[in-house]
Each structure stands twice: as C-alpha cells, then as structure tokens.
Specification:
Elements: E1 2-7, H1 12-23, E2 28-34, E3 39-44, H2 49-58, E4 62-63
The structure holds copper (II) ion.
C-alpha cells in the first residue's frame, strides 16, 4: 500500500471527489480516502506519483509528498 497525504478535505463530498480522481488512474487499486487522517491509501501498480499529485491539485486539494 502507498499513502498520499491530502490537505483541504473537509467533508465526505471532498473524500468522494478525491477518490474519484484517484480511481481514474487504471494503475491504482483499492483506493481508500480517509477524511480524519487526511490521506489516501492505495495499491499502486506503476502510476507516477507526480501525476497523482497533479490530479489532486487540479480538483482543489493540496497533496503532500
Ligand atoms: Cu467537502
């Protein structure tokens, strides 16, 4: 499992938006977004983390490293 910190999520709508953005990557599986922890976890089969961060930024949230 990989983890990506995400700042700016405040409710389940945010969680849903982030989950959808990550699930758009076919290389990701078992995407889970935790509002309390402010992070997403997933199995990553080759997606570039820079692209994942870009997708998160694009929908208005702030990804960590
Ligand atoms: Cu929200």
């Amino acid at each position: 499992m990989e983890t990506l910190k995400i700042k700016g999520m405040s409710c389940q709508h945010c969680v849903g938006a982030v989950k959808k953005a990550l699930e758009a990557f076919p290389q990701l599986a078992e995407v889970n977004v935790d509002l309390q922890a402010g992070e997403a976890t997933f199995v990553n089969k080759g997606a570039d983390r820079q692209q994942l961060r870009a997708a998160i930024s694009k929908i208005g949230f702030e990804p960590g490293e």
